[in-house]
Amino acid sequence: MLSRAVEPGDRTTSSLVRQIGPQGAVREQLAPKADSGLPDRLREVDPVRELEQAERQGIRFLVPGDPEWPQGLDDLDHIDSVQALGGTPPGLWVKGPMPLTELDTSVAVVGSRALSVYGDEVARAIAGTVAGAGVPVVSGGAKGIDFAAHDAALLAGGATVAVLACGVDRVYPEQNRRLLAHLAAEFAVVSEQPPGSAPTRIRFLARNRLIAALTRGTVLVEAALRSGALNTVGWAEQLSRSVMCVPGPVTSYVSQGVHEWFRRGGASLVTHGAEVLEVVGAAGEHLVVAPRGEERPRDQLSRSDQLVLEQVPVSSPACVVSIARLCSLHIRDADSALRRLESSGFVREVEGGWRLAGAS
């Protein structure tokens, strides 16, 4: 009844459910109130019929306390948010065979609908790596970064779930019909909106908090300054989930919001999926080896041999005495180093002293 009659993110309802339970919340909300149509909407709901209709469509309804209920959603009742929307939803409508308990280790990948070629490439690389490692990818089922993340996760043979701002029996956007149908058949599409509900701006914003709460961390790939994806990472930050941002070109309009989030602090910089797995993994899990530049043969030399090599001229030869003086070494030590460098092909002895090998 509450899911059908109350708009998502209604803090009053979530507070009442927390304090006096769902039945008490219904009784409280049924009391006549000035300028409120909620009592009438509640009376119009036939919960038995709603659940029977949903079951016929392969849709199940989860509530807090159910074995499949994602416990991360309960955290929404324990944050003091300045946003108007919030709170744990009274329930979730789910279509698809994947148990939502599998989202305990999941990662959200979100970003702009108007993605660039760069954003598409990076989102796909990150989502593919994460999903390929057995970590489910969660996104919003929209165009742009959302679609790239879902699609790449599927191509990698991994699991992915879409959290919608409309009913799970609706298709939005139409361009993603095949994707959403596949997720509903093989994985899961999720919404706090009951079947038949249409998407609205408020419902999109309310949906964002669910994406953040269902996952261990949120990756922001591309987002303009007013992108809705920034709302998702805002919720992730408030929920003490990991926030990870992918830097873009400083001239890119669709990366301005990402860069502004970096300036605020609190986000981890990630450039590929392995770094995402390291951030959300348990201690010691998915450790990333720090990248190093290409190793050169001289990098294998001892410090004293490198010091001597630096003082060997390119063209005009230098005597061992001069080289030793420049290196602050004993002549005997400098000579030994030169002999080792010669055997390794770095220097050669010519008339008048030493110079670099290969110099004309």
TrEMBL record:
Family from the record: Belongs to the DprA/Smf family.
Provide the Smf/DprA SLOG domain boundaries.
61-279
The protein, known as: DNA-processing protein DprA
Organism, scientific name: Nocardioides astragali
Q: Please list where the region (Disordered) is annotated.
A: 1-40
Pfam family membership, one: DNA_processg_A
UniProt cross-references to InterPro entries, sorted A to Z: DprA, DrpA_SLOG
